[in-house]
């Protein structure tokens, strides 16, 4: 097996995917090489392409291939409202409710001191800068209703209120302990309507 | 999201990995781009490298970067014995028992008519050719003791015996329904010693 450097390297690299252990990494490597070399090439190119092209939107912080993302450039959005979410998926969930026409800020995570995830890791300064652009009149906190999401919302809320910004939080239509990604759009829609000032 | 072609392409490509659904593909993509771009690049290069370099050993059919693999080139191996296994992992399991000093043939699968996997997919002709090289005196069938592995062993055994080749099968020390990959080396060692002519 010693001379198979590129096979071992592939298994090692697959192990760095979240949720993939040594056994499944090896199985993936064998499967790709034996049954789906086209998929292996496609994934290889897709990874290098994405790393090369995907950056953070200078305005909302989501993943984008352009300096400013499409949503932020959309003139029909209400620039007076800024909804703060943890992930691009959460943003998509809110978009699907059709109840919100403002703009977004994507934290790309949530505060989690135990995991060493602090304000810098959720782009806190960028958010503060964004919220202070003179147009934003309300920041809607739509972080998850988990302990970490609530703590993140609390932290952001306190800082923004100290700076005189109006802050609201999605109403508790979202089940306590729940993650937006797994909640039906109807519930999220109600929570958006019932959002309360914090 | 429309302009993020390379992000969508990455999610799509990750979905082609065995056992990865749309949700985990998206999570993997976000994780790599947000937290581990180095891993993404490494995996990208590893995939393209492996596709480019890994081929099948001309003799034993396992994955290798050279025309003939290291094991096949090892002059200390007993060329009169040929052990037939389903996968490179199974070969490795047998190597770990230190009970076998012959050569191997790796089928890269097993017969499975219901899945449309026939003799051609397990390199049957290549195996027949290999077994008829004039040096092989015994073929040891070490396919799994699952229904499909047994059927594969039976199919190979019948054809080889019709051609006058001595064929043996690992003894039933391996639990019925078991897969070599999950059996302890001691059991495999006993099964190797107790192998019987079929
Ligand atoms: Zn944006
Ligand atoms: Zn070989």
UniProtKB/TrEMBL annotation, chains A, B:
Superkingdom, taxonomy of origin: Bacteria
SUPFAM superfamilies (UniProt xref): Recombination protein RecR (SSF111304)
UniProt keywords, alphabetically: DNA damage, DNA recombination, DNA repair, Metal-binding, Zinc, Zinc-finger
Entry coiled-coil feature ranges: none
CDD domains listed in its UniProt record: TOPRIM_recR (cd01025)
GO BP term (any one): DNA repair
Keyword Cell inner membrane: no
Gene3D superfamilies tied to this protein: 3.40.1360.10, 6.10.250.240, RecR Domain 1
Domain spans labelled Toprim: 80-175
Entry GO MF terms: DNA binding; zinc ion binding
Pfam families to which the protein is assigned, alphabetical: RecR_C, RecR_HhH, RecR_ZnF, Toprim_4
Keyword Transmembrane part of the UniProt annotation: no
ZnF segments: C4-type: 57-72
Classification via PANTHER family: RECOMBINATION PROTEIN RECR
Job description of the protein: May play a role in DNA repair. It seems to be involved in an RecBC-independent recombinational process of DNA repair. It may act with RecF and RecO.
HAMAP family: RecR (MF_00017)
Recorded family membership: Belongs to the RecR family.
Protein name as annotated: Recombination protein RecR
């Amino acid at each position: 097996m010693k001379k198979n450097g590129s096979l071992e390297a592939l298994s090692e690299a697959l192990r760095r995917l979240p949720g993939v252990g040594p056994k499944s990494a090896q199985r993936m490597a064998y499967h790709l090489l034996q049954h789906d070399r086209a998929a292996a090439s496609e994934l290889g190119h897709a990874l290098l392409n994405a790393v090369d092209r995907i950056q953070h939107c200078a305005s909302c912080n989501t993943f984008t291939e352009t300096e400013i993302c499409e949503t932020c450039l959309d003139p029909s959005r209400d620039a007076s409202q800024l909804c703060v979410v943890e992930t691009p998926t959460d943003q998509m969930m809110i978009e699907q409710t059709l109840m919100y026409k403002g703009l977004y800020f994507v934290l790309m995570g949530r505060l989690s001191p135990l995991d060493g995830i602090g304000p810098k890791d959720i782009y806190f300064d960028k958010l503060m800068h964004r919220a202070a652009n003179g147009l934003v009149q309300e920041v809607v906190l739509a972080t998850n209703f988990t302990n970490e999401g609530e703590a993140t919302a609390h932290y952001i809320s306190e800082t923004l209120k100290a700076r005189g910004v109006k802050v609201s939080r999605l109403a508790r239509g979202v089940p306590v302990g729940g993650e937006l990604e797994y909640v039906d759009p109807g519930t999220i829609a109600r929570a958006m309507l019932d959002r309360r000032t914090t």
